[in-house]
Amino acid sequence: MESYKQEFIDFMIKCQVLKFGDFTLKSGRKSPFFMNAGAYVTGSQLMALGEYYAKAIHDNFGDDFDVLFGPAYKGIPLSVATAIAYSKLYGIDVRYCSNRKEVKDHGDTGILLGSKLSDGDRVVMIEDVTTSGKSIEETFPVLKAQGNVTIKGLIVSLNRMEKGLHSDKSALDEIRETYGFDTAAIVNMKEVTEYLYGVERQGKVWIDDDIKKALDEYYAQYGAV
Questions:
Q1: Window from 77-86, 96-105, 120-129, 204-213 with minimum mean pLDDT
Q2: Active-site option among 104, 116, 144, 190
Q3: Percentage of the chain exceeding pLDDT 70
Q4: CB-neighbour burial class of residue 179 (10 A; exposed 0-12, middle 13-18, buried 19+)
Q5: What does the pLDDT read at residue 117?
Q6: Catalytic residue among 26, 101, 106, 204
Q7: Is 106 a catalytic residue?
């Protein structure tokens, strides 16, 4: 596993973004882990988060893109932080763009924040985590309505690796097949489990035998094929 992935897992734990226990998800599923990207709240956390995203984008999609698009609302700070990090790490100025939930009819009008999109723009979409693909369903038409843009791919921080609500495939696989662009994550839950199971990290064993059993049972029921 790449070193930045190991560092990112430690980072999620340190920021209390990734937790283990007993959680009820919006879908109603009982999950032994929970990720809340809203827990990244400080300047240093957002700076580091942007760099992890930038490294994963560089690894998965290269530099062949012009714009980072973050769907409202959580995607807005992600796109900004990652655009800054991309310039810092790779010396490449990519633009950031996000959508509004409502069209603004005065001042900076339109549905978009940040950069406008033009014919020929190559776009990487950025989100925290995708469980159902609903946000992509909402924002994909917005992007395509701006002109002849190419979606290079979607990057998320964590691939939960569980089947969606409507098929046995993961949300990222469903998106890839439905829209025809690549999807990737900084890390997936298999990598998280392998890195944390039975090993003390930051003074604690985060995945002990009980949590590992709960994870195995969860993925036996909900794991994507």
A1: 96-105
A2: 104
A3: 94
A4: middle
A5: 93
A6: 106
A7: yes
